[in-house]
Design a protein that fits this description.
By secondary structure, the chain is α/β, with parallel strands linked by helices. The chain contains 16 helices and 20 strands.
């Protein structure tokens, strides 16, 4: 990456301070761009879902991994819960989506509540392990909420045999054509007569574009976070035992002695596993974490939407400059960085990658989706939302210190550097995380074609950045309606 001639920055920059300059390109289609990363985590798109309790759960993990990304399970989730979640993610099909399942005698109210967990608004009706029917939100409209599901479900719906599902483009097109000809938006998937999930027409199209992030056994990948307190070796070993593929040693201030000690101990558990550590914003921080054992360093202090660190403490650094400096330091050592926080638009993801990040972490942007762990709420005007909160907020700290004494919890609750409650509204046009991934990756693919890059490595090499004023940034915003 380079800046336009005469535009070397004289102060630190945020993503909004820069723009990408188009260059001569031989790339004829955005589908010719390979978004696979080279940092050893096995992802095929450069998106990592941040380890936030309100964002990163099992449903998010399976959905994002199916599209090639990675979800980091937060450090404050009990290990037995993590184990169950990882087991379910590893058991997921790389093409068929895990279905919402109800019994024939469940009520319409129960079915509708569960349907909020998935954007396709449908549930399989299963009795004695066999498919009894299919019920959709449309089937439940105008029906008494205590009506039993078997009274409104579609009996003997058209199905897809799991053997027909393959990542081969011709096989995917055959399944799509089958659904299209039957005028179906989705269908249950059966293996030997047993329901294993659902496929949608849009999902089949996505499977022809994305490649899932798979481990050596062909199962979906997932990452897990560890704090720097307590028996970190035991926690790391436990996460690896239950199937976590990447370890993330995480604390707000990563450039401290306690982190370096914890990181070295985690690194010793299983040397071949990718270990991520952070957060830092300087080259010196990168070098110290790499020396302690990090393969990847997380970059970012204070840019997150739920973070109040900069306003509370004055500590942090504009994210683009932090990524630029840290990525250069990591590259000299043969390592990588993740840009953690500060992205508000697809353009920001592209600029972070141009600046040298191997992947970009996204948190609050994904909180207002069907797949995030929170319950769906309605605000009284018909708009749907989920609650989000920062991982340094009083709410998060209270949950993380639940095992401590009441006095110690009260002391720690006095200090917060994050928002404890924020409404993240669902975008009616993009209610699912896959919709947002489509938005981000389509923009990124186009960015690569403008730069003449067929891979992310080429993008980092060929990208040209220019500097802009706030007016320049505003000029790029589309007008909402007319003039």
């Amino acid at each position: 990456m380079r800046f336009l001639p005469g535009q070397s920055p004289t102060h630190d920059l945020t993503y909004g301070d820069a723009f990408l300059v188009p260059s001569r390109s031989e790339i004829t289609s955005r589908f010719d761009v390979d978004l696979a990363t080279d940092d050893g985590t096995g992802t095929t798109i450069p998106i990592v879902v941040a380890n936030m309790t309100a964002v990163a759960g099992r449903r998010m993990a399976e959905t994002v991994a199916r599209r090639g990304g990675l979800v980091v399970i937060p450090q404050d989730i009990p290990l037995d819960v993590v184990a169950r979640g990882v087991s379910r993610v590893k058991a997921c099909d790389p093409i068929a989506e895990r279905a919402i399942v109800v019994r024939p005698d469940d009520t319409v109210d129960t079915a509708l509540l569960l349907m909020t967990k998935r954007p396709h608004a449908a549930a399989l009706v299963v009795a004695d392990g066999r498919l009894a029917g299919l019920v959709t939100a449309a089937d439940c409209r105008g029906v008494d909420r205590y009506t039993q599901v078997h009274e409104v479900m579609t009996r003997e719906p058209a199905t897809v045999d799991a053997a027909e599902l393959s990542r081969d483009p011709q096989a995917l097109q055959a399944v799509f054509d089958h659904l299209d000809e039957a005028r179906l938006t989705l269908a249950p998937v059966l293996r030997d007569g047993v329901p294993v999930g659902v496929v949608t027409r849009k999902g089949i199209v996505r499977s022809s574009i994305y490649s899932p992030a798979l481990d050596g056994d062909g199962r979906l990948r997932i990452a897990g976070a560890i704090g720097i307190n307590g028996d970190v070796e035991a926690k790391a070993a436990a996460l690896l035992e239950i199937g976590v593929d990447t370890l993330v040693v995480d604390t707000a201030h990563g450039h401290q002695a306690k982190m370096l000690d914890a990181l070295a101990r985690v690194r010793s558990v299983r040397p071949g596993v990718p270990v991520v550590a952070g957060n830092v914003v300087t080259a010196e921080g990168v070098r110290d974490l790499v020396e302690a054992g990090a393969d990847i360093v997380k970059v970012g202090v204070g840019p997150g939407a739920m973070c109040t660190t900069r306003m509370q403490t004055g500590v942090g650094r504009p994210q683009l400059s932090a990524v630029l400096e840290c990525a250069a330091a990591a590259r000299e050592l043969g390592k990588h960085v993740w840009a953690d926080g500060g992205v508000r638009h697809p353009r920001d993801v592209a600029i972070a990658l141009a600046a040298g990040a191997s992947q970009v972490m996204v948190g609050s942007w994904f909180a207002g989706t069907h797949e995030s762990p929170g319950e769906m709420h309605e605000d009284g005007t018909g708009r749907l939302y989920k609650e989000s909160f920062g991982m340094a907020s009083t709410r998060a700290v209270t949950a993380r210190t639940a095992g401590a004494g009441a006095f110690e919890r009260a002391r720690k609750a006095l200090y917060e550097e994050g928002i404890s409650s924020s409404r993240m509204y669902l975008d009616p046009k993009r209610p699912g995380v896959e919709d947002l991934l489509d938005d981000i990756t389509s923009g990124l693919r186009s960015s690569c074609t403008y730069a003449g890059a067929g891979t992310l490595d080429e993008f980092r090499e060929r990208a040209v950045l220019g500097l802009q004023s706030a007016a320049g940034f505003d000029e790029g915003r589309p007008l909402p309606a007319g003039w």
